[in-house]
Design a protein that fits this description.
The complex is a heterodimer of chains A (282) and B (181). Chain A has 11 helices and 14 strands. Classes of the chains: A alpha+beta (282), B alpha+beta (181). Strand 1 of chain A pairs antiparallel with strand 1 of chain B.
Chain lengths: 282, 181
């Protein structure tokens, strides 16, 4: 339960960190809050030869709204900062992020774990990955070849795999439009555990009627996925129950010791319905 | 001053840590976790170590007054931060503070292995949320594992301490005055 030896490098700026990653190659890992990486290193599931610590880059620890209402979250913003939202930047449209934080681990995990770290880690059940897919987030990455923006739909490629190049640093996550009728809910065996299934929805409500919406699931595939079949039901004016059934039929969740495919499908049905109901009551 | 954009550390490195208000220097490998440096290098054995992968919470300490898992943090990452351990709670002569006394009075421990983690978790939480409800306290203590099944009494102890602190000061309440360290 002790990590393998590594060399520790403390980055002073993003470009320096990216340059070092390019130099060190695949044997280097970025560390931010370390709440996934250090556990994996203690288990020796990960044994990077070099760690590049970016936690000192305070310019990546900020959260603000653009004039057009978009929310920009610096990669080093902790889950706890989003949860407590000291500057009130989540008000008027992004309260869903604030509420979703309580599903992430426990308080001492949320005080260290970062939004960017969670996204770059790319766990198939992670709340942040699911929120990004549901809300159509954009990822700003910087590397030796400059800066680029990656859409959420192109970012998560599979189990713990993202579109980030080995020498790129995720610097900012942009949520382009407010989501006043959005919700995330999940089921885990114990409070704070990884979700067996997580569901999130972002509904478009006009005159008290749901016109359309985005539906996404975590824990049913190798990464968080949108469910077009369930979204089609909402666009056709179908009930939340019908939407939830369509989602359950559309997925083929993996089976393991925590639950069969059938069981997870039933969780999808229950959780999508609950998320829809919470979204319209919020 | 070193203006190199990246500082690369050798296999052994000198780490300067601020623990309980005292400055310490430790020469160690970068792979040394904060909890191992606290226990083995600084001999602050009040912080316990259980699972070493962030589940049990026995190693909880405060980093810049926020509860964190000291097994999920390398000591090198803690440079420049203020670290506070369970040893900071008592008055130095072995006298217990109000939170520790509440744990005693409410029988909030049996074997005691998990107790330092719960104490420092509660200390950090109440500093941020002095008006926390019992339900919020219950939610927060789910962070840590107690295998003697003592959660009910732990919740009661923390709630009693918070209630006493709220009663002890004039309104509006400066809760930081309730902390003894």
């Amino acid at each position: 339960m002790k990590p393998a030896p590594f060399q520790y490098h403390r980055a002073r700026d993003v470009d320096g960190a990216a340059g070092l990653l390019a130099e060190l190659g695949e044997d280097a890992k970025v560390i931010a809050g370390g709440q996934s990486l250090v556990a994996m290193m203690n288990y020796r599931l990960a044994r990077p030869g070099h760690l590049v610590d970016i936690a000192g880059l305070r310019e990546l620890d900020r959260m603000h709204r653009d004039a057009d209402g978009a929310l920009r979250i610096g990669a080093l913003t902790t889950h706890h900062t989003v949860e407590s939202d000291p500057a009130g930047v989540l008000e008027a449209g992004f309260e869903v992020l604030n509420r979703a934080m309580t599903w992430i681990g426990h308080l001492p995990i949320r005080t260290r774990g970062t939004v960017g770290g969670s996204m770059a880690h790319g766990d198939a059940t992670a709340e942040w990955c699911l929120l990004a897919v549901t809300l159509g987030a954009q990822f700003v990455a910087r590397g030796p070849r400059g800066e680029r923006t990656i859409a959420a739909g192109d970012f998560f490629l599979g189990y713990y795999t993202t579109a980030l190049d080995p020498d790129e640093i995720l610097v900012e996550i942009v949520f382009p439009r407010p989501a006043p009728h959005a919700a995330l809910t999940e089921f885990a065996e114990r409070r704070g555990d990884f979700a067996l299934v997580a569901a999130a929805v972002d509904l478009d409500v006009e005159d008290g009627e749901v016109r359309s919406g985005r539906v996404a699931l975590g824990g049913v595939a190798s990464a968080a996925v949108r469910v077009p079949e369930a979204e089609a039901v909402l666009a056709d004016g179908g009930s939340f129950e019908a939407c939830a059934s369509a989602a359950a039929q559309a997925v083929e969740p993996p089976a393991d010791a925590s639950g069969s495919t059938h069981y997870r499908r039933e969780l999808v049905r229950t959780l999508v319905r609950r998320a829809c109901e919470e979204a319209v009551s919020s | 001053m070193n203006t190199d954009p990246v500082v690369t550390h050798p296999p052994l490195q000198l780490i300067a840590l601020d623990v309980n208000g005292e400055q310490h220097e430790v020469i160690t490998e970068p792979r040394r976790t904060l909890v191992d440096v606290l226990r083995h290098d600084l001999r602050l054995t009040g912080t316990h170590v259980g699972c070493e992968h962030g589940i049990c919470g026995a190693c909880t300490v405060l980093v810049d007054e926020r509860p964190v898992r000291a097994c999920l943090m390398f000591a090198a990452q803690a440079e420049g931060a203020r670290i506070r351990t369970v040893e900071s709670l008592s008055d130095g002569d072995g006298g217990l503070n109000d939170l520790q006394r509440a744990f005693t009075e409410h029988h909030a421990l049996q074997c005691g292995f998990c107790t330092p983690g719960f104490l420092i978790l509660a200390d950090g939480f109440l500093a941020e949320r002095p008006d926390a409800s019992k339900e919020e306290i219950r939610e927060v203590v789910a962070s840590n594992l107690c295998r003697c099944t003592g959660y009910q009494t732990i919740v009661e102890a923390i709630d009693a301490c918070a209630t006493a602190r709220r009663g002890a000061c004039a309104t509006p309440c400066d809760m930081s005055a309730g902390k003894e360290h």
